[in-house]
Amino acid sequence: MNVLVTGGAGYIGSHTAKALARAGHRPVVVDDLSTGHADNVRWGPFFHSKLSDSATLREILREYEIEAVVHFAASALVTESAIRPLAYFENNIGETLSLLHIMLDAGISRMVFSSSCATYGLPKQLPIPEDHPQVPVNPYGESKLSVERILHWMGRTTRLGWVALRYFNAAGADPEGQLGEEHDPETHLIPSAIAAALGQREYLEICGVDYPTPDGTAIRDYVHVTDLAAAHVCALQHLASGGESVALNLGTGEGASVRDVMAMVERVSGRRVPKRDASRRPGDPPILVARSELAGRLLHWKPNCSTLEAIVETAWRWHSKSLTAPVGPELAAFG
């Protein structure tokens, strides 16, 4: 298929573009480069554009005979969303509406949507199943849930087929070393711990050491970015073969604490990770772990390289050669 990849210059989007090309599809990337990097686009055409530029988008869909869309483009910082909620709603919801209008006008009826476990809010049961109540506790999660609801109703009233993939904690880097995680600011645990180990961050600040967990730090379900990329290819194949529209969790079903991650970074790197304990961040639950059996049944997907060791090893190889500029001691409690 010819596949439009919005936000395809970003972290998960670029890994997915590579996976699509490997599977025989042609990824066509559109990204406004607000957070993405142009040098991440290596497996197909690239257009520097916002989704609200309807003339450019219509021309791309026509020229490249686009048959499906994988939609990553979004603002994705939880803390920032609480400070600038209107900007998050305008970008994450408004740009998606523009995209859907143009898609449907062009007769494109397949979308894989990058959603998030942030739609669930504070978990009432663990591991978290897909039918868990969705009560977001921040504007970012609310924006993702709003798009899921829009897709639900568009699927009911048009020919649109969709799969929403609710990621837990994306982590790691391309095993071949071509792509990695590059955020500014960097708030995710693993690259922040690696930066501290490399001396490029003064210390890692752990936000919360008194959670009701075995070691007092928060537990998260880390999924290798290449496993997430593979799930998008499986989701497109699911839709192409007439599969139902559905929202699915992507996780491993197992959690690692902040201290577990720090210990693995120290083991893989052979370096100490300097740290400083701090208070919890408001709204951060002690544990987030997924139930992902449904993705296995419907998409025939399973995480193949999402052990904590594999995640940290690939991230270490990427960041130890790529991070060269010093950074300050920013908050990085967990991913």
List keywords for this structure.
335 residues, alpha/beta, 10 helices, 14 strands, 38% helix, globular
What can be said about this structure in brief?
With 335 residues, the protein is an alpha/beta fold. It is 38% helix and 17% strand. The strands form 4 sheets. It has a 7-stranded parallel beta sheet, sandwiched between helices. The chain has a 3-stranded mixed beta sheet with strand order 12-9-14.
Write the layout of secondary structure elements.
Layout: E1 2-6, H1 11-22, E2 26-31, E3 46-48, H2 54-63, E4 68-71, H3 78-83, H4 85-105, E5 110-116, H5 139-157, E6 161-167, E7 169-171, H6 189-197, E8 204-207, E9 219-220, E10 222-224, H7 225-240, E11 246-250, E12 256-257, H8 258-269, E13 275-278, E14 287-288, H9 293-299, H10 308-322
Parallel strand pairs: 1-2, 1-4, 2-3, 4-5, 5-6, 6-11, 7-10, 8-13, 9-14
Antiparallel strand pairs: 9-12
Helix pairs in contact: 1-7, 2-4, 4-5, 6-8, 6-10, 8-10
Describe this structure in words.
- This protein is of the alpha/beta class.
- 38% of the residues lie in helices and 17% in strands.
- The longest helix has 21 residues, at 85-105.
- The protein starts with a strand and ends in a 13-residue tail after the last helix.
